[in-house]
Protein: Allergen V5/Tpx-1 related protein
Amino acid sequence: MGDFILIFRFFLICVLLLTIPCFVAGEEKAADIGLLSIDVQPSAAPGSSVFGSVTAVNYGQMISMSRKVTFYLSSDEKITPADYELGSVHFSFLRPGETAHRELLATVPDTIPPGEYIAGAILGPGFSLTPDPHPENDVISQGTVTIGKTYTRPQDWFNEKIAEIILVLSNDERALRDLPSLTRDTALDVIALEHSKDMAHRGFFDHTNPDGEDPADRADRHHYDQSRTLPDGTSFYGIGENIVKIPVEKDVYGFGEIRNDDPYEIAQVAIESFMDSPPHKEALLLPAHEKIGIGVAFDGEYYYATQNFF
Structure:
């Protein structure tokens, strides 16, 4: 038994000695994680919640190991670990060329003075046999955050962030079924946002508003051309619509408590609600749909999200 262990250890050492040169032979053999973008809500306060997201890509030719990304608020454009730390996320096992996105819901440090700060992130070292080929991609700064004495949620930013994430998650569902991605249409955005704001303002939840307008009526009022010819040659008129009403800061059956400060969670609930409803799921996954408009509004208790399709 002892001889077997010695032989095994010798074999393992030989394997490592033979393997290491393969990793360090050239940059083309290494993983190379780089930060592409960072987004942090535009205002917060000491002790308040703060939402941010970061996107990374593997530029290298090998699958990556786990790497930690830490968010910071800095008083200047040079982002360092000495700045105010918000929190961290991890990227693991990115394939060559793969892009990944991570969200962060954190708390602003109590010690940060009010003022203007630059949002940034640093990609930390990971477990690897080779150094990062391009460490200049490991630090990113983008956008400013205003730290006030008291916190007022930047609601318009939250509403649009939820809409952006709804678009990503919608196309994720379509991609799983080999369907083409939907392109966001600014004209449909106007129609969808108006309906969400109307539901929030007048306190109703329906595809038909109190004035009797349905989705096609609203599109007509906005002079949106609803005529198209489908691939099979048939003519089609009208737009599709999904709506959802999401309460926050209370327990929701099947979802638990939905946090007002987490746009990703709210968007995820919206998509899961659509996918759990056969007619909403059909609209979201209809192969003929090519464009989407998304609008989100908040009445202080409920988020209203509208998707319009064409």
Remarks:
- DSSP finds six helices and 16 strands in the chain.
- The helical segments are 2-24, 155-175, 186-202, 215-221, 263-275, 278-285.
- The chain has two domains: 33-147, 155-309.
- The mean pLDDT is 90.
